[in-house]
Amino acid sequence: MARGARLTPAAAAAGLVAVLAAAGAGLTVGPVDIAADRVALQLLDLIPGLDADSGLSPSRAAIVTEIRLPRVVLGLLVGSTLALAGAAYQGAFRNPLADPYLLGVAAGAGLAATLAITRGLGDGAGWLDPVPLAAFAGALVAVGASYAAGHLGGRSTVSLVLAGVAVASFLTACQTYVLQANTDAIREVYAWILGRVATSGWAEVSLIAPYFLLTVIVVIRYRRALDVLAVGDEEASALGLDPRRVRLIVVTVASLGAAAAVAVTGLIGFVGIIVPHTVRLVFGPSHRVLLPLTVVFGGAFMVAADLAARTVLAPAELPIGVVTAFIGAPFFVLVLRSSRREVW
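Structure (tokenized):
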């Protein structure tokens, strides 16, 4: 690891360009193509005190501000949160294959969402929809159960991960049982499981925004501690760091952010693998550089994946989880091959 690594202006500029390019494409491309300059003027018109005439009809202006803009913002927040959570897990566990679903986040959210859907509770929207609320609660319960079970094995990292695998397997089995008993809801459940970045306005954005901010602030605050943790627990302790405390805080906050992301978009896999590893390969392994850039490129990646999901088979829309899996599965194999050994 390079000592004194810093985020360079060139790297920050690359991240900014990626976000602007992805957001611009997300706002202009669709069943109704709208010129980029018109979109820019329409966005400027939203700023208090500015009166920019975009020349768009009321219906096209509504497409930009009420449909595409909330969807792009939601994609940026979800992608950033999942990618940052993946980088945090990989740094905390010193495992290049760790991701936000390691401690049962996906399994807990999936079971709770399945229960909510099979009970006919999926008719609301945003804050009023019980499905994302149930998924959020289920994800947190799963992480809590993993921590409780892991502590029985001596509070080691290995025990925690194995407990997460056991809890996830049990919850997945429960979800399968519920689905078999409610076959009429299978289609709706699997539509949620495959993920989507669809909004009914700004409600979903307001739902995840506080957890996004909390995850970014806390995880990036521990960027130097994660660099120290990379040398090993014994060496980190000798340098005055408490590895267990750092790991507990970072993993808990990352799990909270991942749970919020899963609650509003369903299960979107591989984001926490693809983005951190790509950033690490291009810009280096130091968390002082890795974490901020992961936030930026994670959002850009999710918006680009969502754009592909809604345009590849237009007018039909692919689940975004299918798009990320197409990219992530081969990427995962490459990461697995390049990993010389597992580090715990």
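The first helix runs from residue 9 to 28. DSSP finds 14 helices and no strands in the chain.
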